[in-house]
Specification:
The complex is a heterodimer. Chain A is built from 2 helices and 8 strands, in the order αβαβββββββ. By secondary structure, chain A is mainly beta. Chain B is mainly beta. In chain B, the strands form 2 sheets. In chain B, strands 1, 4, 5, 8, 9 and 10 form a 6-stranded mixed beta sheet that branches. A 5-stranded mixed beta sheet of chain B has the order 3-2-11-6-7. Classes of the chains: A mainly beta, B mainly beta. Chain A binds chain B through residues 2-4, 6-7, 47, 49-52, 54, 56, 61, 63, 66, 68, 70-71, 73-77, and chain B through 32-39, 80-82, 117, 146, 161, 180-181, 183-186, 197-201.
Chain lengths: 89, 201
């Protein structure tokens, strides 16, 4: 399978984001800091087989989030997400 | 090694292999593909490799110039931070020592940069002294794009995220700037023998 074929959509990180935010996040809206595109988490592009999880904008391929989980800790970089909007539970 | 007895080769192989496999790693025979983004489309006519930063004049090679440099074939074990190791991988490419010939620099660090925006940081001492290569063949074949072709970095004594795929150059720096993974949880140095996977390891 090629890298492109292994690319996932944002539903693949629903479980990971629920661990971090303790909320269902696939309907949350991300605003790309690069191009301004707004997409639901469920529609973003996910590369999950790197050393961490890399979430990219489906419009411009910029990195929206980098999530590393290991050694009992999480590291979450949201530099590429200008805004993350989600409903209270 | 403890003892070697004839007809006890299975045991001996285990000992030999554990001395070559860092702690916490398992050996694979396939070659897993890990990627943080799409595979870049590379036009070799426009491709260059650049050494820039703390250097009087940037040094730049076209693809044709790079492959005309004296090459080396090296066989090394590689160790991914996701815990697989692959032993005896054979690569052909140019030693970083060859690229750095004649370069005078005050830099103590380097950032390796790639198509697609990936970066990784290393002490300059870890890429010189016959420890790192810019490689374009794997196992006698042109390096496949999924494994970083046309050209990837190879620094096998550190975790494999330091061996950047789709490499385009080295930036020489006086201070260390954390790269793509080093800025978000992964270790600045990444020595597999000391299991330096994450910040604080």
């Amino acid at each position: 399978m090629t890298i492109e074929e292994r690319r996932l959509d944002g539903n693949a990180i629903g479980g990971l984001l629920r661990e971090i935010f303790t909320l269902e996040m696939t309907a949350a809206e991300t605003t790309c800091a690069g191009c301004g595109a707004i997409n639901a988490v469920g529609r973003v592009v996910v590369y999950a087989d790197a050393p961490g999880t890399v979430v990219r904008c489906p419009a411009c391929e910029s990195v929206l989030m980098r999530i590393v989980h290991g050694g009992g800790r999480y590291w979450v970089d949201l530099t590429g997400t200008r805004c993350l909007e989600f409903a209270e539970s | 090694m403890g003892f070697i007895s004839r007809g006890f080769r299975g045991k001996r192989r285990d000992v030999a292999s554990s001395s070559r496999v860092p702690p916490g790693q398992y050996v694979v025979t396939d070659f897993p593909v890990l990627s943080a983004g799409p595979t870049p489309r590379v036009n070799l006519d426009q491709w260059t490799f650049t050494i820039e930063g703390e250097i009087d004049e940037p040094k730049r090679w076209t693809w044709k110039e790079l492959v005309a440099l004296p090459s080396e074939t090296v066989t090394k074990g590689i160790h991914c931070v996701t815990k697989w190791s692959k032993l005896d991988t054979t690569w052909k490419g140019i030693s970083v020592d060859t690229l750095m010939e004649g370069v005078e620099t005050a830099a103590e660090f380097t950032t390796i940069f790639s198509d697609g925006g990936y970066t990784t940081n290393l002490p300059l001492d870890d890429v010189t002294g016959n420890k790192a290569w810019v490689v374009y063949e794997f196992d006698g074949q042109p390096l496949h794009p999924e494994h970083g072709g046309p050209v990837r970095f190879l620094v096998p004594h550190l975790y494999f995220w330091k061996s950047a795929k789709w490499v385009r150059g080295m930036r020489l720096e006086k201070e260390e700037h954390p790269g793509f993974w080093e800025s978000n949880g992964y270790n600045m140095y990444g020595d597999p023998w000391r299991e330096q996977r994450y910040w604080g390891d």
